[in-house]
Amino acid sequence: MSSVFSPPWWAKSPHIQTILPSITRVLGPLLERERLELPDQDFIDLDWLSQPIESQPIILMFHGLEGSADSHYIKRLFLSCKSKGYCALIHHHRGCSGEQNRLPRSYHSGDTQDVQLSLQHLKEHYPNNPIYAVGYSLGGNVLTKYLGEQKEQSLIERAVVVSAPLQLAACAKKLEKGFSKVYQSYLIKLLQQKIIDKMERMALDSYIPVTKHQIKNLTTFHGFDHQVTAPLHGFDGVDDYYRQASGLPFLAHVAKPTLVIHAKDDPFMTEDVIPGPAELSPHVSYELHKQGGHLGFIEGGSPWHPKYYLERRILDFLFPTSPQT
Fold first, then answer.
1. pTM for the model
2. SS3 309
């Protein structure tokens, strides 16, 4: 089981590692959608690669901010699972499956309630199938928080967390500096448009203290999260949201085998996301690579056909011995 990552000479830049995968065309496999109706009258969409057979592990994926089944890292893991005959599906955060969700609320970096709803649904229908989970970026932070909250009661048996912003306040500050502002600008525009679209469908003035026209002025994560994300999801401002939702304090309480993968050059993060030995549960394996960018980890190939470390490492950890399929 190799945990050595080394980028090729042409992909040593963190920005090449971060941007190239997102613009490289990946033709993902066909997926089948299942709509999970929620107790609050909203919904979550689950996209399945295949249905599990008896006792076969189910790999459940959680995407990053404004990601989906179309995200490059999700499609690549689906393809790897398909090639090995593994069962896999993706949990779409509310409003990320191509259709707006029904309620004013959406999703956030600490939204473990929806994770639990998806897991309970899987356990109800497939009680004999162990659940393995993979969380990317925001989805990785949510997964870390879930594992730490639930401890031994976690419905997930093994997990991998990739490029997670485990200290949200520090990451928000990092994205306001240097080239990282490019990533912030791109993501904030997606969030702005999504909330504006929602405001055209429903009245949100009793939930958030800004008008549709003021949304355009919220150009940083700190500002957007303070005026939109926090009040919309019941937090007392951005500081309260970042404190409660950050995954780092939950790492010490994880009780199921979990691998956390970070790159030291990740342009979304600072060293504040790197846990010290005392912050890690004995059940957590931590990999800090010198390079890799954010959700990148290109290890070979060519700029036109890159090859990746992540899928191989993720599946090696989830299946340390040959699984029963």
1. 0.96
2. coil
